[in-house]
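Need residues for this backbone.
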């Protein structure tokens, strides 16, 4: 990835250090459980241990590779920064207290500056290559859901449906799951982050599935709500309100709008139809290497949408004791609107 613009945003920083897995992958395209990326104005270094040495030397291009022991990790970062001639160092993510204390102690000769906002802003705007990978991940997820839903039957448990979906994602080419797959039946669909249980599907109950495939290091994210039978008048109305609210927001969202304004498009529609107090989460979020990235598309966010941001559109209405509906697509933000990269249909009845 291009790194020169890291220094354009803060000309006082001489080098950056990224130690978390997602940022390491962002810059190196190499997944590891240990290591650091150190980026100076004229040099880039990838620090890891012996487990990844041969692969790193083959995969990680344009970086000098430094191998160290875990016990020497922070000292090796300090040594690398000293060789770069760095004085002020930006660090790019949250750390556990013990990790930060060790980091700070080893880098006591440097002036440390939090720089999470710099890397988050950079990662929020995707390249065309990243978007193509995310679309591929989404197609894997859609195929998996289509195959799994075709086998839904009365008496199946939530756990069984989750397992079917996960199996189909892996068989379909996913390297894993973007997050723990949600499968909820009946009244459980009113819990936005329900954990699948041994609850069995009954006739005319709602089925809510929230899922995502991970492919080449990137996530997809999709939610669909179904019914095997007739959900009844109120839940059918709720479904239509959520679907229309999502369509309304997708129609008018575009680069240059704030995340608050996009959230408001769906929220006001749901409120006008009498369910404002039943939509308790944000309209959406960024998706990329992590399932939740910038921007946060919610009522309290004044972040301005930029072209090539990838966000979700996931309004929902949840009525305790009855059920809930959420419909989620992924969107690529463009100057004149958004492109919906989710192709799975939105039929309620299966």
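Answer:
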């Amino acid at each position: 990835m291009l790194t020169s613009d890291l220094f354009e945003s803060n000309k006082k920083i001489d080098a950056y250090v990224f130690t978390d897995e997602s940022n390491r992958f962002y810059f190196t395209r190499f997944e590891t459980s240990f290591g650091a990326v150190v980026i100076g104005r004229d040099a880039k270094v990838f620090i890891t241990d012996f487990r990844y040495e041969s692969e790193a030397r083959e995969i990680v291009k344009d970086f000098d590779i430094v191998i160290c022991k875990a016990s020497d990790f922070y000292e090796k970062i300090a040594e690398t920064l000293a060789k770069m001639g760095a004085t002020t160092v930006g660090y790019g993510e949250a750390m556990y207290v013990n990790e930060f204390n060790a980091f700070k102690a080893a880098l006591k000769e440097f002036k440390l500056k939090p720089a999470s906002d710099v890397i988050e802003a950079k990662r929020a705007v995707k390249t065309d290559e990243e978007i193509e990978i995310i679309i591929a991940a989404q197609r894997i997820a859609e195929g998996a859901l289509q195959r799994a839903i075709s086998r839904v039957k009365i008496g199946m448990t939530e756990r069984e449906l989750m397992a079917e979906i996960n199996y189909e994602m892996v068989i379909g080419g996913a390297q894993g799951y973007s997050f723990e797959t949600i499968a909820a039946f009946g009244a459980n669909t009113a819990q936005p982050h329900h954990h699948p249980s041994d609850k069995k599907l009954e006739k005319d109950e709602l089925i809510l599935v929230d899922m995502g495939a991970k492919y080449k290091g990137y996530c997809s994210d999709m939610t669909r709500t179904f019914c095997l039978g007739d959900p009844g008048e109120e839940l059918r109305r709720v479904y239509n309100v959520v679907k229309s609210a999502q369509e309304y927001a997708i129609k008018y969202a575009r680069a240059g709008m704030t995340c608050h304004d996009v959230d408001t498009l769906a929220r006001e529609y749901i409120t006008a139809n009498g369910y404002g107090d039943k939509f308790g989460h944000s309209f959406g979020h960024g998706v990329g290497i992590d399932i939740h990235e910038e921007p946060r598309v919610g009522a309290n966010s004044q972040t301005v949408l930029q072209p090539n941001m990838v966000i979700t559109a996931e309004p929902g209405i949840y009525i305790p004791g009855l059920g809930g509906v959420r419909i989620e697509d992924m969107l690529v933000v463009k100057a004149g609107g958004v492109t919906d990269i989710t192709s799975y249909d939105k039929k309620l009845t299966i």
